[in-house]
Amino acid sequence: MGSMEIRRIEGVVVNDDGCAVDDLSFCGAVQVTVPAAVPWDDFVDLAVQEQWVGVEALSGVPGTVGEVVGRNAAAYGQRVGDVVASVRTWDLDTDRQRTFAAADCGFTPQGSRVSAGNLRILDGTFLMRQGDLTQPIYDETLAGLGGVGPGQRLPLIVVREAILRAGLS
Fold it and tell me: By three-state DSSP, how is residue 44 classified?
C-alpha cells in the first residue's frame, strides 16, 4: 500500500495526548480545534486521513466548520454535536469571547445555541476516537452504500468515498 499524502489545514490544532493524567478525555482520544472558516469537507477529509472517528459519514456536507457546527448537521446516523467538545464564539452583544462546553451548546436536530444571531463561531473543538473503522453502522442507506449489514463496521475511507461517489450528502 502506497503512502497517502495528508493535507494540512492552517490553524488546526491537534492534541492526541488523550491519556494524560489530568485530561478529561478517554484514553486514546484526539482533540482537534478547527477554525470556523475552514470548509467542512476539508476537515472531514483530514479526519479520515488521520483516522479520527466520528465525522466520516458527514462527508460532503456543505458549508464551513462554523456553519456545520452551528446547525448541528447530521447524516447517516452521525451528528456534529456528538463529537463537539466545545465551541468558541464572539458575542456581538458583549463584544467579548465566549466558549461553550458541548453540554452548553444546546444541540438539537434543528440547530444549536451557538448559532444564535448575536454569536459568531470562531472555532470548534472536537473530541474523537482514533481508529480506522467506523462505529457500528445502523443507517440503512449508508450500510447499503458500503455493502454491509446493520451493525457492521467499515473503514473510514470506504464510507467517505462511498458517500462522495453517490453524491448523497
Answer: helix
Distance CA 32, CA 46 (A): 11
**Which element (helix H / strand E) includes 14?**
strand 13-15
For 13-131, CATH gives 3.30.465.10
**Cell output for 93:** 452583544
Give the helix, strand, coil percentages of the chain, each rounded to 5. 30, 30, 45
How does pLDDT run across 113-149, given as a tens digit for each residue? 999 899 999 999 999 999 999 999 999 999 998 999 9
- Polymer length in residues for the chain: 169
Percentage of residues in the chain with pLDDT exceeding 90? 77
Question: Which pLDDT value is given to residue 169?
Answer: 56
Q: Spell out the domain ranges in the chain.
A: 13-131
* Rounded Cα distance, 71 and 69, in Å: 5
Amino acid (1-letter code) at residue 27: C
pLDDT at site 155: 96
- The set of residues, in sequence order, having a beta carbon less than 8 Å from that of 22 and lying 6+ positions away, is none
User: What is the reported pLDDT for 168?
Assistant: 60
Identify the three-state secondary structure at position 11: coil
In three-state secondary structure terms, 150 is coil
